[in-house]
Fold:
Amino acid sequence: MLPETTEWLRQSEYDIDTAEAMCRAGRYVYAAFMCQLAIEKALKGLVVELTGNTPPRTHNLIRLVKITAVELPEHLSEFIAVLNMAGVGTRYPDLLDDAIKRYPKEVAWDYLAKTKEVMQWLLLQIMSTQ
Structure:
């Protein structure tokens, strides 16, 4: 595994741990945001591993998936599309109260579980390049 890939994955794990901490703390908007960031960094690790290039400076998960050209299972692809939209709404909410309503406890914990599933799948893709 390339050193840059290892670093992206290390940061991704740190972010998913932070998402879990935010869920436990009841800071669900930030949990959703950290889920998006964790997948973004894992995807950037996959970009590096597959292409040997530094990934683009983007938060767009769909764009990153396209760069990798991997075929995600449909349910993971659908979740990435949902989380991609959440990334904007949690990063720059128009109104905090609206964001809090959009990301209640149940949604945040669901995002966390699905994010872990996506991250495991991405790690398997990275490991299969070895």
